[in-house]
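Exercise 7. Given the encoded structure of a 362-residue chain, write a plausible sequence.
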C-alpha cells in the first residue's frame, strides 16, 4: 500500500506494531492451535484474520491516508486519467456546491483492452472503508486476479477517499459516474459493463446503480452488478460499537475504530435526516427497481452479512428485480480482495465462479 509514503512518523508507528506482532506470532499460533475463532479455520486463517484486524485498528489510530496521484507510475500505459463527464451527468445530490467532480485516475487489468474485444468488461470499485486504498496493483492486484475468472478486462478507478480533504459524500459517487461515463465514451456499451465493488466499493457500486436507475440521467444501466461484501449502512458504521459488539466480531477482521473513521469522514457536515441523502448512505429498507441483475456475495462469518442479506431479500421482494445471494461458507469479510493474505484463496475463486454462472444465467 502507498498509505504511509508521505507520513514517515505514522509509518514508524505502524511498523513498530507490526514488528511487535511478529514477535508475538509463535505465542498466538500456539494459542490458536487449541482455540480458533471458527473450528473449521486453519491456524493460518485464524492468525491472519487477527493480524489484519490489528493492522486496520492501528492504521485508523494514526489515520494513515492514501495519497491519490494522477501520474502513471509503474503502471505506465495501464493507468489512464478519467476526465470529468458532461455536467448533465451530475444531477440532484451530485450537484453539490462544495464537492465538485474532479479528474481522477484508473488502472486497467491486465492491460488496456484491444479494440476488437466484444465480451464483457468489469468496472470495479475497491474496498478500504472510504479511508484507504486505490485502484493500482499495490492495493488491488489480487482483486483483479479474482475478477479475471469472470471477464478478461477490469478497470479500477482510484476514487476520492473520505479521509482526504474534499472527499466526503458525494465525491466517490461523482467519481463513479465519471468512470462509468468514461468507459462508455471509449465505445464500450453499457450492456457490456459489469458494475462491481467490494466492501466500501460495493457501497459505491450500489449507489451508482441506484443513481442510474432512479434518477433521470443520460446513463443506461450496466449488464449486471456484482456486490462483494458490500457496506450497506454508513450511518450505523459511524458508531464503532456496531462492529465491536457484533456476534461475528471474533470471526472477522473489521474493527470499529477503522470503520467509524471512514464513515464519519464520509458523512461529515451532511444533513443525515435528509432522505435524499439517507437513501444512499443507508441502503437497508430502501430497495429500488434495479433494471439489471444484482449478485450479492457475503461471507458466512462476517460482520456485514446480516445487513447485506437482508437488503438482498428486500431487493428480491420487488417483482421486477433479479437478485442472487451467495453466502461463502466460513468466510470473513471481503475474501475477493484479501483472500490471498488471509488464506481464503479457494473461497475467493469459488465465489468468482459463482458470479460468472449468475451472469451467464441472466
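Solution.
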Amino acid at each position: 500500500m502507498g498509505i504511509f509514503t508521505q507520513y514517515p512518523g505514522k509509518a514508524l508507528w505502524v511498523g513498530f506494531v507490526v514488528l511487535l506482532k511478529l514477535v508475538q506470532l509463535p505465542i498466538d499460533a500456539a494459542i490458536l492451535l487449541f482455540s480458533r475463532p471458527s473450528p473449521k479455520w486453519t491456524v493460518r486463517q485464524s492468525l491472519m484474520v487477527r493480524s489484519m484486524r490489528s493492522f486496520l485498528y492501528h492504521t485508523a489510530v494514526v489515520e494513515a491516508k492514501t495519497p491519490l496521484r494522477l501520474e502513471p507510475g509503474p503502471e505506465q500505459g495501464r493507468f489512464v486519467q478519467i476526465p470529468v463527464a458532461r455536467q448533465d451527468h451530475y444531477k440532484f445530490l451530485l450537484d453539490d456546491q462544495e464537492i465538485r467532480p474532479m479528474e481522477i485516475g484508473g488502472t486497467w487489468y491486465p492491460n488496456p483492452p484491444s479494440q476488437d474485444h466484444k465480451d464483457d468488461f468489469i468496472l470495479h470499485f475497491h474496498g478500504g472503508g472510504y479511508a484507504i486504498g486505490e485502484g493500482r496493483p499495490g492495493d488491488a492486484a489480487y482483486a483483479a486476479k479474482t475478477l479475471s475468472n469472470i471477464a478478461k478486462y477490469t478497470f479500477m478507478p482510484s476514487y476520492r477517499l473520505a479521509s482526504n480533504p474534499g472527499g466526503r459524500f458525494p465525491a466517490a459517487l461523482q467519481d463513479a459516474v465519471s468512470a462509468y461515463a468514461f468507459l462508455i465514451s471509449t465505445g464500450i456499451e453499457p450492456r457490456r459493463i459489469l458494475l462491481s465493488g467490494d466492501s466500501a466499493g460495493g457501497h459505491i457500486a450500489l449507489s451508482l446503480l441506484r443513481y442510474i436507475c432512479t434518477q433521470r440521467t443520460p446513463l443506461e444501466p450496466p449488464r449486471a452488478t456484482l456486490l462483494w461484501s458490500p457496506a450497506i449502512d454508513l450511518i450505523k458504521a459511524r458508531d464503532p460499537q456496531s462492529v465491536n459488539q457484533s456476534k461475528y466480531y471474533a470471526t472477522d477482521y473489521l474493527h470499529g475504530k477503522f470503520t467509524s473513521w471512514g464513515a464519519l469522514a464520509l458523512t461529515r457536515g451532511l444533513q443525515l435526516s435528509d432522505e435524499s441523502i439517507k437513501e444512499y448512505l443507508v441502503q437497508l429498507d430502501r430497495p429500488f427497481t434495479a433494471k439489471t441483475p444484482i449478485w450479492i456475495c457475503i461471507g458466512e462469518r462476517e460482520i456485514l452479512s446480516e445487513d447485506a442479506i437482508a437488503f438482498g431479500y428486500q431487493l428480491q421482494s420487488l417483482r421486477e428485480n433479479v437478485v442472487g445471494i451467495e453466502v461463502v461458507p466460513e468466510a470473513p469479510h471481503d475474501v475477493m480482495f484479501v483472500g490471498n493474505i488471509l488464506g481464503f484463496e479457494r473461497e475467493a475463486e469459488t465465489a468468482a465462479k459463482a458470479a460468472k454462472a449468475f451472469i451467464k444465467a441472466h
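Remark. The chain has a mean pLDDT of 93. Students should compare their own answers with the one above.
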